[in-house]
Amino acid sequence: MVVDKVGGIGPGYGPKKIQTKAEVNRTDAPKDNVTISDAAMRQQNIDRVKKLALSTENRTDKLKEVRERLAEGVYDNPSDEILGKAADQITDFFLTR
Question: What does the UniProt keyword field contain (predicted)?
Answer without folding.
Answer: Cell projection, Cilium, Flagellum
